[in-house]
UniProtKB/TrEMBL annotation:
<keyword id="KW-0119">Carbohydrate metabolism</keyword>
<dbReference type="GO" id="GO:0005829">
    <property type="term" value="C:cytosol"/>
</dbReference>
<keyword id="KW-0808">Transferase</keyword>
<dbReference type="GO" id="GO:2001059">
    <property type="term" value="P:D-tagatose 6-phosphate catabolic process"/>
</dbReference>
<feature type="binding site">
    <location>
        <position position="246"/>
    </location>
    <ligand>
        <name>K(+)</name>
    </ligand>
</feature>
<keyword id="KW-0963">Cytoplasm</keyword>
<protein>
    <recommendedName>
        <fullName>Ribokinase</fullName>
        <ecNumber>2.7.1.15</ecNumber>
    </recommendedName>
</protein>
<keyword id="KW-0067">ATP-binding</keyword>
<feature type="binding site">
    <location>
        <position position="252"/>
    </location>
    <ligand>
        <name>substrate</name>
    </ligand>
</feature>
<dbReference type="GO" id="GO:0005988">
    <property type="term" value="P:lactose metabolic process"/>
</dbReference>
<feature type="domain" description="Carbohydrate kinase PfkB">
    <location>
        <begin position="1"/>
        <end position="293"/>
    </location>
</feature>
<feature type="binding site">
    <location>
        <position position="287"/>
    </location>
    <ligand>
        <name>K(+)</name>
    </ligand>
</feature>
<feature type="binding site">
    <location>
        <begin position="251"/>
        <end position="252"/>
    </location>
    <ligand>
        <name>ATP</name>
    </ligand>
</feature>
<dbReference type="InterPro" id="IPR002139">
    <property type="entry name" value="Ribo/fructo_kinase"/>
</dbReference>
<comment type="subunit">
    <text>Homodimer.</text>
</comment>
<dbReference type="Pfam" id="PF00294">
    <property type="entry name" value="PfkB"/>
</dbReference>
<comment type="function">
    <text>Catalyzes the phosphorylation of ribose at O-5 in a reaction requiring ATP and magnesium. The resulting D-ribose-5-phosphate can then be used either for sythesis of nucleotides, histidine, and tryptophan, or as a component of the pentose phosphate pathway.</text>
</comment>
Length: 307
C-alpha cells in the first residue's frame, strides 16, 4: 500500500447550542456546550487512520489544552504524529460555533497555529514528506504554503489531491500541479466562475479546470455521488442512499476514502465508489471525526449495496 500524507489544518471546534442567536450586546443562556476535534486536515487524517491507512499528518497546534487533546485524538486514531509541531506562544486553531434550534449556525474561526504552517515548516518536514506517495491538501493553511508544497512535491513525482475548501479563487499555476481536485458545487463555482444549474454546467466547469492543467476533476455531489471530468471524458459515479443524520465532514471523509483506495492500487472509478461509501456512512451518525467509519464497516456497506 502507498503511504499517505495530509498537510493541513487542525482545529478544535467549540460548539454551543442555543434556542436563538443573541442580538448585538445581548447575553443569552445556551443549552449545551461541547468540544470536537476538527479542521479539514485533521478530519482527513483521522478518517484515513480509521480506515487503516499509513498516514502522516503535517500541521501545527498551539501549546494549550486543545493542542494536547488533539494530539491524543490523532494518536488514538492511528495517525503518525512526527510532522505535528506544538507552536509556542500561539493558540491552537479553533472554530467557535453557535447552532440554533433550526440548525442554522454562526461560525468564527481563529486560525491560530494553522497560520504558522509556512514554507519553512515544509522544509523542516521534507525528510518525512519525501518518503510518502500520496498527499492531501485543503485551504485552511496559508495558500502560499499550499502552492509552495504542491510545486515541490510534484517535482518529486508525488500524487497530489486538493480539496479546494473553504471555497476561494486560486492562482492558475496551482492547477498544473494537481492530479485530483475534489470541489463541491459551491467550490467549483468559485474556482471557475461558472454558475452550476445542471449537469451540463458541471461538465463545462470540470473541463474548464482540466484545461487549466488539473488531470482529474472529481466534483462531489452529495447523495448523487460524484462526477469525474478528464481531458476526454465526463462520468457520473452514483452515490449511496442513506438516512443522513449529520453531514459534517462528509467531504473530508470522501477525500480520505478516495486517497485510501488509490493507495491500495484501485482504479479511479472504483476509488470514487469507495469514497462515496465512506462519505455516505459518515453522515449516518452525529459528529465529524466520531462518525467516520472503519474499514470493515465500509467493506460491509459496499458488499450489501453493490450485490
Amino acid at each position: 500500500m502507498k503511504k499517505i500524507c495530509v498537510v493541513g489544518s487542525l482545529n478544535m471546534d467549540l460548539v454551543v447550542t442555543v434556542d436563538r442567536f443573541p442580538e448585538p450586546g445581548e447575553t443569552i443562556t445556551g443549552r449545551e456546550f461541547a468540544t470536537y476535534p476538527g479542521g479539514k486536515g485533521g478530519n482527513q487524517a483521522v478518517a484515513l487512520g480509521r480506515l487503516g491507512a499509513d498516514v502522516l499528518m503535517i500541521g501545527k497546534l498551539g501549546n494549550d489544552l486543545f493542542g494536547e487533546q488533539y494530539l491524543n485524538n490523532l494518536k488514538e486514531n492511528g495517525v503518525i504524529l512526527d510532522g505535528v509541531k506544538v507552536e509556542e506562544g500561539v493558540s491552537s486553531g479553533i472554530a467557535v460555533i453557535e447552532v440554533d434550534s433550526t440548525g442554522e449556525n454562526h461560525i468564527v474561526i481563529v486560525p491560530g497555529a494553522n497560520g504558522k504552517v509556512d514554507r519553512a515548516f515544509i522544509e523542516e518536514n521534507w525528510h518525512l514528506m519525501e518518503e510518502r506517495d500520496i498527499f492531501l491538501f485543503q485551504l485552511e493553511i496559508p495558500i502560499d504554503t499550499v502552492l509552495y508544497a504542491v510545486k515541490k512535491l510534484k517535482k518529486a513525482g508525488k500524487i497530489i489531491i486538493l480539496d479546494p475548501a473553504p471555497a476561494r479563487i486560486l492562482p492558475d499555476d496551482i492547477f498544473l500541479n494537481i492530479d485530483y481536485i475534489t470541489p463541491n458545487e459551491t467550490e467549483i463555482e468559485t474556482l471557475t466562475g461558472i454558475r452550476i444549474k445542471d449537469v451540463d454546467d458541471l461538465k463545462e466547469a470540470g473541463h474548464w479546470l482540466v484545461k487549466k492543467g488539473v488531470k482529474n476533476v472529481i466534483a462531489k455531489a452529495g447523495k448523487k455521488g460524484a462526477y469525474l471530468a478528464t481531458s476526454d471524458d465526463f462520468v457520473h459515479v452514483p452515490g449511496f442512499t442513506v438516512e443522513a443524520v449529520d453531514t459534517t465532514a462528509a467531504g473530508d471523509s470522501f477525500n480520505a476514502g478516495f486517497a485510501f483506495a488509490l493507495a491500495q492500487g484501485k482504479g479511479i472509478i472504483e476509488s470514487i465508489q469507495f469514497a462515496n461509501a465512506v462519505g455516505a456512512i459518515s453522515t449516518t451518525a452525529k459528529g465529524a471525526q466520531s462518525a467516520m467509519p472503519f474499514l470493515r464497516q465500509v467493506e460491509t456497506f459496499i458488499g450489501q449495496r453493490m450485490r
